Amino acid sequence: MNNILCMKWGDKYDDSYVEKLKEQCEANCSVPFKFWCFTDKPEKDWHIPIPTTLDEFYDEDRGFFWAYRKCYMFRPDLISGDGKPFPDNSKFLFLDLDVIIHQDLKYFFDLPDRKPWIVRGWWNDIETVKRNYAKYVSTPLNSSVILWNKGQMMPVWDHIKEHAEVIFFTYPSLDNYFAHHWYNPWEEDNGFLRGFPQGDIYSWYKGNIFPDDMKKKKLRDDLMICLFNNSGYSEGDNDGEIKKLW
Amino acid sequence: MVDYIKFTPELANDWKSVQTSISHHHVSAHGWYYKHCAKRVEDASTHSQLESKLWIIEEVIKLNINIDRVAILAGWYANFIVPLLIDELGVSFIHNFEIDRDVQYLSYKFNNRYKSQSGMGLGKYKCDIVDVMFDPIGKYMKMGHPNFDLIINTSCEHMFPMRNFTKLNKGFLGNPLYVLQSTDEDKYDDHINCVSGPEDLIQQSDFTEVIYSGTKELNNGMKRFMVIGR
Residue B143: its pLDDT value, please? Predict the structure, then answer.
């Protein structure tokens, strides 16, 4: 069973982002799927309320690890919007709200599923990534698109639960946490997480592949997905540029 | 007083090999290259870096403490601290726990003269890739080897408060002495845990015994705090 998940909390994005993402998925996925939105304001039958168990660890003034709500998706006991647990054969494709889908999402559900997948920002210079590894900047990963099977991300959820105080204090972003604990920038095939292949997902603000295809603010509609998030932004920032391209 | 590092022929040779490793054309035996580390090596080799390590040695000597086995947390290339501990304090074994995989290779280059040669036991210097705020370092200690006498962390501003380290390693480490350094300089992104002064650092570490606490302004203008205790 294929599921496409998104998440909306607070005021960073208005409801039109969720509706637009749902519309894009329906227009660009040739295999059956269910669309779910984790939200702090559940109103529809495809809405799932966002839990609050990790809220106590989040320090709003510091703003570290602000995308932590995404971690709830990795719980093995995840309940769907209709109040039932997801079946054991469930596949999950998470998409951030600020993406443009160019191609058929079937591609993602057909990928080999031995490991979970995440965006490897191929626009990053790997030398910069390694040089800045201990400085908690220049992460090679981007959690705007994640693909996993039910239960596959349980070690991540367990690790976050066990070390929540340290993780929320240490990592400026979820992507940075992933890069430190579940990925290996030195041996990229050996991490728990695997990066989507080059040429699948690119960034509106950063480019596609370093160093050869780095033109910014260029649509590449032969690729799968365009990301609009900007790691320089923090919770609450959103320039709405994507709306001009919907 | 210790105000310099002993620039022996062996040290000169090891440091020269680091320069080779970070040069543009060099590829290591395991196929990695390190040219992107050149700036980091430069940053680890400054006046202030040496000052802060000399400060440790100076105070430990004044306190007349016998130190034989040392753990360094987030010790980076350990280029200054290792020769100082061995030459000035007669330390027999130093274990550096670092998160950066490039560091392991380059710190062995810096300290090659102390590294285990094949079939020659542990050597005097060892480096493992460990995030000390998540994994107990006791897991990396050889069975039957004595505990560390001293645990040095000159990177406290880069990590969660040290009370978590002691909690993680409870039952593994005996009752070692700690030397901790930090700063109140918060203009760097990776200074995620600045403190207001030595008292703050002591509090973060849950020390019940403090035998030294002080402040020093380093050559780069940064204020550095150091506490020694357990």
Answer: 72
Parent domain of B198: 45-229
B94 is a domain residue: yes
Kindly state whether residue B117 falls inside one of the protein's structural domains. yes
d(Cα A147, Cα A160) in Å, to the nearest integer? 19
CB contact under 8 A, B134 and A135: no
Quote the mean pLDDT of chain A: 94
Q: How far is B105 from B21, CA to CA, in rounded Å?
A: 9
With contact defined as beta carbons under 8 Å apart, do A94 and A67 qualify?
Answer: no
Answer whether B133 sits within 8 Å of A165, measured CB to CB.
Answer: no
Reported as a single tens digit per residue, the pLDDT across B41-85 is: 999 999 999 999 999 999 999 999 999 999 999 999 999 999 999
Domain count, chain B: 1
- Answer for the pair B230, B209: CB distance below 8 angstroms, yes or no: yes
Of B35, B40, B192, the CB nearest to A170: B192
Residue of A nearest to B38 (CA): A131
Q: Give A131→chain B minimum CA distance, Å.
A: 6
Q: Which amino acid, one-letter code, is at A204?
A: W
Chain B, 47 to 106: residues with Cβ < 8 Å from chain A are 74, 99-103
Q: pLDDT tens digits, residue range B167-210? A: 999 988 889 999 999 999 999 999 999 999 999 999 999 999 99
CA of B93: how far to CAs of A233, B90, B121, B149, B215, in Å?
A: 45, 9, 11, 10, 28
Q: How confident is the model at residue A210 (pLDDT cuts 50, 70, 90)?
A: very high
Summarize pLDDT for B3-22 with one digit per residue, the tens. 999 999 999 999 999 999 99
The full set of domains in chain A, from first to last, is 2-245 (3.90.550.10)
